[in-house]
Amino acid sequence: MPNSLQYKANAQAPNEYTFSNAEAVIYAKAVYKPEIPETKNLAQFIEDDKASFLSNDPGLVVIDAGTMHDKKGRHYKTLEFKPSADGNWEQSAYSEEVDGDKNEYYLVFVLSARSESGYKATLGVFREFITSYE
């Protein structure tokens, strides 16, 4: 699936599906740090994202899902988001990156599934997606 210019994200859905009709999707965003100067570090970026999730579903259960590493050795802090009722099961992985021009970004990879079974079935693919990122 092509990059989404509107959402500044790269969205992936299984073959034969679209982002809107797949049981589970993976998307990645690189957030340019100068566009959010009030955010001072990765920990604050993660807390702000978590607060955004909770504002949409105050009963959401947020679980620390540990860390992962990509091919370049970057650490990713991961959080699991379990809906309180109807809603998507999600896992987000957060890190930072500096590109070749010294531009700094927060990285966010997200697995979003319509059900717990879809979430669990896609979790391995999500982890592979991150660990193979360069």
Helix content: 10-25%
Query: Which architecture per CATH?
Result: 3-Layer(aba) Sandwich
Q: How many domains comprise the coordinates? A: 1
Q: What composes the largest sheet?
A: 6 strands, antiparallel
Top-tier CATH class: Alpha Beta
Q: Distance between termini?
A: 19 Å
3D shape: globular
Mean pLDDT metric = 87
Number of helices: 2
Q: What is the radius of gyration?
A: 15 Å
Helix/strand class: alpha+beta
Order of helices and strands: EEHEEEEH
Give a count of the beta strands, DSSP E runs of length 2 or more: 6
Describe this structure in words.
By secondary structure, the protein is an alpha+beta fold. It has one domain: Protein Transport Mog1p, Chain A. 23% of the residues lie in helices and 37% in strands. The protein has a 6-stranded antiparallel sheet.
Summarize the structure.
By secondary structure, the protein is of the alpha+beta class. 23% of the residues lie in helices and 37% in strands.
Topology (elements, then pairings):
Blueprint: E1 9-12, E2 24-32, H1 42-56, E3 61-69, E4 75-82, E5 89-98, E6 104-113, H2 116-131
Antiparallel strand pairs: 1-2, 2-6, 3-4, 4-5, 5-6
What keywords describe this structure?
single chain; 134 residues; 6-stranded antiparallel beta sheet; Protein Transport Mog1p, Chain A; alpha+beta; globular; 2 helices; 6 strands
